[in-house]
Amino acid sequence: MYDTLIPENAVDQKEIKINAEDVQVYYGDTHAIKDVSVKIEDKTVTAFIGPSGCGKSTFLRCLNRMNDTIDICRVEGKILLDGEDIYDKKVDPVQLRAKVGMVFQKPNPFPKSIYDNIAYGPRIHGLAKNKADLDVIVEKSLRRGAIWDEVKDRLDQPGTGLSGGQQQRLCIARAVATEPEVLLMDEPCSALDPIATAQVEELIDELRQDYSVVIVTHSMQQAARVSQKTAFFHLGNLVEFGETSQIFTNPVDPRTESYITGRIG
Amino acid sequence: MSAGLIILVVLLIACAGFFVGRSRAIATAGGDIRNLHSRPNYYGLTVALFSAAPALMIAVLWLLLQPLYIEGQVSEMIAPADIPEGGSLSLVMTDVRRIADGLDVAVDAGTLTEDRIEDMRADLSDLRTRLGEVGIAVASEVRQNVFMAAKTYRELAAKLRLAMAVIVIGASLAGAAFSLLRINPDYRARNVSEHAIKALLILSSSVAILTTVGIIFSLLFETLHFFRLYPAKDFFFSSIWNPQFQGGSDLGILPLLWGTLYVSFVALIFAVPIGLLAAVYLSEYASKHVRSFAKPAIEILAGIPTIVYGLFALITVGPLLRDYFAEPLGLGNSSSSVLTAGVVLGIMLIPFVSSLSDDVINAVPQAMRDGSYGLGATKSETIKQVILPAALPGIVGAVLLAASRAIGETMIVVMGAGAAAKLSLNPFEAMTTITVKIVSQLTGDTEFASPETLVAFALGLSLFVVTLGLNVLALYIVRKYREQYE
Amino acid sequence: MTDASMPETSPSSKHTSSLLQQDVRTKKRNASEARFKAYGAIAIGIAILALVALMTSILANGSSAFRQTFISLDVYLDPAKLDKDGTRDPEAIAKVSTFGYAPLIKAAFDKEFEKPEIGLEGMKSSEAAKMISKEGPAELRRYVLENPDMIGETVRFDFLAGGRIDGYFKGRVTMESAERDKNVSPEQLQLADQLKAAGLLKTKFNWGFLTRADASENRPEAAGLGVAILGSFYMMIVVLVLALPIGVAASIYLEEFAPKNWFTDIIEVNISNLAAVPSIVFGILGLAIFINFAHLPQSAPIVGGLVLTLMTLPTIIIATRASLKAVPPSIRDAALGIGASKMQSVFHHVLPLAAPGILTGTIIGLAQALGETAPLLLIGMVAFVRDFPSAPPEGFFDPAAALPVQVYNWTQRSDPAFVERASGAIIVLLVFLLIMNAIAIILRRRFERRW
């Protein structure tokens, strides 16, 4: 049923959440991202697609400055979040990442209990006044991660004991717990089986109500299923960006067409 | 014929066998080496191996068993009356060996002849001065039986040496002949020599087992000997350590154990936080530049022999702690103290703890770090709340290994902790450890059969058991930890 | 720290705030971050400080061991005393004991005092002659025995100055301490100053420190490392000859041939445990097996070498296995693929490729063995050895000292001059270790291969 879920075209113009202008990324001497400008809307799922090594993950990691942890990586250009440059010297990446959460390719629950996994973010950011408050946040986040019913009886057990799909939803719940405004997902389903993938995709669609979601994906079908906007990256360039339905039915650039018809990739 | 010469002869036979075997193989193939199963060198190798390996093994066994046999034969000649008051058979046997060696030296030096030895009697000719002339000191007046035993000892040794030469060289020649006769073009010389080489490889690997067996046997044997002379209960539970060389010693392990644990504890208190923080800093924070000199500096610390640390404790740290802390605080005036040894031992352990922790921290997957950073955690939050808890089993393993190192360390405590066996809490007081006492009981001229000397073996066994237990536990924990992330 | 406590800042304030301003909590968290980072830097600082303090202490105490004070005197080798018969017969000369030479030195001293620029100021000349090391007559005797033709000549001879005089020029002995010292008097020190001014007393590089044998308790100035260096060298030969082949053979078996069974497991467990057994336990093993059971001589390099071999084996085996493992399986496959036997593929292809790694590991193992002290104490290497061991192979069975044990030995003596000697010996030991490690690093750099 999911592959038929082609999203309705965005009816009304939504608020711009992230505005990237002329972004360049260098890894040492390698020019990994070239002149990328893109506007990411609020309450929308934006998909980044492209062949492997095209820079889509690198660009995604620029959006919450995860690239800062890599010594040789250098970012130029402007990325504005609600009009504020996130690469401004005054910006603390720690504060930024609380606003722009991230979910990774492989589920990476901490070797702690399920409860502590979720509570980790709220604790470090000081989102709960007391234990009861924290309990509420944990429950709310797990519900949003669509995993509450499966784990509510074993919150004190280690998160690493869950199945792959449950782990990934736990990680999504963990990211949601810090009340971010943007959720970045780096191929969140690539390590999951089809059933778990379906569950996560359903979750992503629900999250769109409250967040701006950016998802990097390898699978064009997945992009078509979950996203409203799609950006196609090729060799570090943003080739085409637009409504998902338009990209998949009527691509402008010949490279996009080759990719979605399977001639390159 | 000396053992060295016999072995040399065997090796020469093996060498010659190689070339004879090689040419014989070529000859049997009618000069065309293509007719041979293996390359000619392999035929030579089989001959060499067959002539050397069995013969050398016989030689080694012979050398090990010969002293046992002679000792057994000769000690029967010693009557109970020959054993002086307070001495033991083994002490008399030492004298016998000494006299026998002395006679050999005297003969070599030309001051005695074999004929004269034959006629000699201990009480008539003054053997002691005679041996003294050639530089062999004999403790007491030599008794007749002892001298006769020494003579028998010499004769037996000479006979057996000759027998060994005949048998070993005979075995070598027989092996050579046997393998030479087997050579023909279809003989699978390569397979045979490869099997032989593989046997040698296995033999080499078993050296590790032999070493362990040797350690356990030598410790266990002498410890049992000790417990026959001194009650085990007193050894394990007495809180007094007071060896008296006239006998009547108190040999309780408790004060030594206390000193060992106290010094190790101080060392770990010092080394674990510093080593761990250093590892964290180097792997998570340090810039390339800092790393490029800090890492080698810490590695140098690891390569310095413990005697150097010992000297550092003795001439620098000890006086420093005494002059600036112990004396002003009125806590003591000894430069060797628990704190001296503990701090220096701690410095020695820093690189050990830090490199082990480094391995452990690096084994935590990057995904954990990413997950934490992605949620907006700072580096220190990530380290303290994600990485260190995840690495905890590995770190515990590292600390256990460090503890085992600290408990077994000798030179630093010998030179830094002092020699007084005490049960005290004051870290500025000199205390002593198990290893210090092993050294002090086994060095110097001590009578080997007394409980005061044998106690060192019991101490050694205790030390071995404790450190082995810690190591096994640590390795088990670390292995379990690694499996978690593999 | 702050992370554990529940903060009061209301959650709503966070999202309204601008990214460009740090909120209170973030400031606190960043402060905690900076603190933690500082702890790490302090830990590194302590480690490096310890290294610097260690090196400074050793260098400051030990570098003076390489300089030594000598007193030059013209000694008349009086035939009336040394060779009464005038036969120049070596045996007759040898009969004159060391005591017979002391008057010659005193006479030489007396002659110097006749010169106007040196004043004894009431000190007896016999007192003055004590400034020369007690080793002096023995050295003179050795010289005469080697050069009997020089009897009757006057020879310029550099005598070792006594330990206290030497200490005076190195700052260890002062006029005040000499007042309280029965081995030296302030007058002697003043005389030493005069001799120095007259050019008779010089401080030179101390070759004797590297070549002489150990000396007794009251002759620190004559104590040298010769026997210890030779003894350590002999032990290293034994370790190399035994540990390298056995270690390599064991590694080849374990890495290339060993089936997965209980026997292999036992060997593996044994090796990893032996690597962690306290070194003193190996000393006990050596004492019990090699000396008490096999009756090998005490203090002999062969026993020390055997004990150190057993200690070094695990290190060599671990290094060798690592470098064998680093040779890619494709090399083995290639050899097997053209019909070589397993043994041939290992000995012809894998082993040569792993050789640099094996060599590096062996050198590091040797360096470890060179610095090892505790086990050697138990097999009698602490004994006072004055005679050089003879040439190998007999030399392996002669009594000898070892470098680190010599250090320990000197620290057990009361004369403070031995502290200088011990530290100097450490410098020598560290230089050897430095050279060995440098060779290992160069080998690794030159031959390291990455597949």
Give a short summary of the structure.
Chain B is mainly alpha-helical and 486 residues long.
What is the overall number of helices of chain A?
A: 10
CATH hierarchy class name of the largest domain in chain B: Mainly Alpha
Assembly annotation: heterotrimer
Mean pLDDT reading of chain A? 87
Q: Which value, in Å, is the CA radius of gyration of chain B?
A: 31 Å
Terminal CA distance of chain B: 60 Å
Overview of the molecule:
The complex is a heterotrimer of chains A (265), B (486) and C (451). By secondary structure, chain A is an alpha/beta fold. In chain A, 34% of the residues lie in helices and 25% in strands. Chain A has helices spanning 56-62, 93-99, 114-125, 131-144, 148-151, 164-176, 194-207, 220-226, 244-249, 254-260; strands spanning 16-27, 30-41, 45-49, 73-81, 84-85, 100-103, 182-186, 212-216, 229-234, 237-243. In chain A, strands 6-7-8-3-9-10 form a 6-stranded mixed beta sheet, sandwiched between helices. A 4-stranded antiparallel beta sheet of chain A has the order 2-1-4-5, covered by helices on one side. In chain A, helix 4 crosses helix 6 (164-176). The relative contact order of chain A is 0.19. Chain B folds into 2 domains: 3-208, no CATH class; 241-484, MetI-like (MetI-like fold, Orthogonal Bundle). Chain B contains 17 helices and 2 strands. Chain B has a two-stranded antiparallel ribbon. The two termini of chain B are 60 Å apart. Chain C is mainly alpha-helical. A 3-stranded antiparallel beta sheet of chain C has the order 2-1-3. Chain C has helices spanning 11-16, 24-62, 79-82, 90-94, 102-113, 125-129, 135-146, 163-169, 175-180, 186-197, 207-211, 226-257, 262-274, 279-293, 301-326, 329-337, 342-371, 374-378, 403-411, 417-447; strands at 67-76, 154-160, 201-205. Chain C starts with 10 loop residues before the first helix and ends with a helix. Chain C is extended, with a radius of gyration of 32 Å. Chains in contact: A-B, A-C, B-C. At the B-C interface, helix 2, helix 7, helix 9, helix 10 and helix 11 of B face helix 2, helix 12, helix 13, helix 14 and helix 15 of C.
